[in-house]
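Progress report, Aim 2. The chain analyzed during this reporting quarter is listed below.
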Amino acid sequence: MYIPESIQANEDYQACITFHGHTCMGVTIGYQAAKLAMKLLGEMRAVDEELIVIVENDACCCDAIQVLTGCTFGKGNFFYRDHGKMAFTFGSRTSGQGVRLLLKPTIFQIPEREKVLAEKIGAHQATVAEKQEYQQIYEARGEEFFSGGPEAFFDVEHIEDMNLPPKAPRVPSLACYVCGEMVMQTKLTEVEGHLVCRGCLA
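Predicted structure tokens for the chain:
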């Protein structure tokens, strides 16, 4: 989908692109999700673990969400669930409230004429006029969709008294009995009276 200049010109959007490496619709979906969720929760970017995010995919959108929310793997407030869904849950430790955003299926619906023209362009069979027509349809659809704001992208589920994940644990590291490498204690498994890391168990 065409991404309007009104979105691309935003400083925080460009910060997402710098982090991710290129402009794409995936990053833009994450950008819109983070903007909407933080607005609904009345939250600012997390300095520590004030916010949590649960993402249900590992696509480009996750990078933008980390940049805007301050929720990261390293900070321990960014959680990945391998569900293959364009769904994102945001929670506030301050209010206990949360929102789950699910990308609307309409975003994947491309008008038939746009599909036909795209196929002709891909096959190098389109005329100059058809290429111009395609660009007009493509840009108009993007402008119209984005004009609805982030709300146009997602179905929103409000979560009262959200069951928030615990804060990032701080536990000691112990040596694996097999390889001798230091491992977070909670990631070791006891085998015949010895603590073994997951790598050695594999």
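The chain is about 35% helix and 20% strand. The chain has a mean pLDDT of 94. These observations will guide the mutagenesis work planned for the next reporting period.
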